[in-house]
Amino acid sequence: MEIMISYQRQLERHGHKYLALYYALREGILNGTLARGSRLPSTRKLAEVYGISRGSAAEAYDLLLAEGYVESAVGRGTYVSDELAGLPPLHSNSTSNEQSHHQPSAWSQSNHVYDNDDPKAKAKAKENKNEKENEDLPSDRPQLSRWGQRVLDLDHRSSIQGQPNNSEQTSTNPISSLHGSLNHSLLPTHLHACTEEHLSPISFAPPDILLSGSSLAAWKTALAAASRDMQSPDFAGSTGIAGDERLRETICTHLGRTRGIQAKPEQVVLCSGSMEVIVLLCQLLINEQDDVVLEDPCYNGIARAIIASGGQIIPAPLDRHGILPQDWASQLLFVTPGRQFPTGVILPLARRQQLLQWADRHSAWIVEDDYDSEFRWGGRPIEPLKALDTSESVIYVGSFSKSMFSGLRIGYAVMPPGLSSALIAAKKLYDPLPSSQLEQRALARFMMRGEYMRHLRRMTRLYRARFDLLQQQMDEQLNGLFEWMPTDSGLHRYGIWTQSVEQYEWFRQQARQLQVYWRDAADSRLTPGPPSVCFSFAQMDELQIREGIQRLQLAWQRVSQV
Q1: Class (C level, CATH) for 218-449
Q2: CB contact burial 108-139 (16+ within 10 A = b; e otherwise)
Q3: CATH class for the region spanning 7-104
């Protein structure tokens, strides 16, 4: 069981570990990211995750228990108290007055994941939904692109006139006119055919993630239940362009507990994968010749989306701790702080705060792509930029294709107030009708019943064993060939080749003859650099990992003998 709390920030403020844990847990309880009635991790787990003694963890729990924030019983564990009435609300950007008491927001009180079938909870959720969904954009924040403003105006006119938004109305899409400007050097490279047919191919290339075992059985059950739901007359009404209402509620609950992000369902927009979210955001926020900051190296899909939208990329260099914050002359940044792609490094808290300060100074937007941080083997969890953001400058993008299975094309964005309606209007142009309604409802049920967290725990144990084995084999048999980037999460390892470029090409050729393949990370670079590789392992068993690394060792022996 893992939760996301502001431990590091509180440690810097209070110094003592038990006080930092106490204040971090209390903040999570009061702002609703730790829902009332939810179970908290054991003192042993907290001590392991945050590198403190069990005594310090127990002392923090004792303080919370004495003040009525938690309840505890022998054999049952520690739970967030249901009796928190009468405390004033904790403001999301509160950074002082730590001694004052606060009450969770009405939203957080009504959205515990298991309360979705409670009539009272449903009524409360409806009240919140009826609130004004989008406020005007702040005047000092960069406005929508010309394309985005036209889409929003068109959607408003259609709503007033009662006309549907047909896909024929996409003539304002700038991609068609900019198609020729795509940088084809950013397109992924393809694996070449093998030459030694007697060997079975071993691929460290990114796999198609599949469900199996009890996770697959639970997913089939959720799909069957969702199919029955489709017979209900109110099924269609719960799935608008923004996505299934229950799934958006459940995502908010999940993000609150595991990421420390406070969000309401009207801020969440579901799309057909995170890449659709990113493309739409590029079109909404980028005008021709706008400067856009992007990590170097990066996911090439983001680079292509920026170029297709007319943007000019400012490459932001990295080190072994992630992006190096600078005072960029830009109003848009794409970043992967939870697990940088492709290097896998995790951005420290201090740099995250620097990025937020830059955004606040320049009234800029930050698009935080949290593509692959569900599976973590160690280290202290750090809050996402979205959880640290106090000026509504961060757009948070997530996906289920890596944590569930590749064919589940459900991505989402958590939008700042004022931008949700623009993203929904843009999505209408491409998807006039809600997409993946059955899968969205099934995923909501899968998550609400706790199956998603059980699935993550099972896969984390499995992937960690494979990660440890891969790391061990590489250190023993490929020592010195690559400089591996430090990482404690994710489904691939990133390494920089330490020998000559010519030797890398020979090594890759010999590996192909031995039927071993991987992803060449050259397509991730915006500026020239040494050869680099990504080795994925989620799809491989122990035998394949050992055999693959042994063949790579043999490939290098052939190269070194030349």
Answers
A1: alpha beta
A2: bbbbbbebbeeeebeebbeebeeeebbeebee
A3: mainly alpha
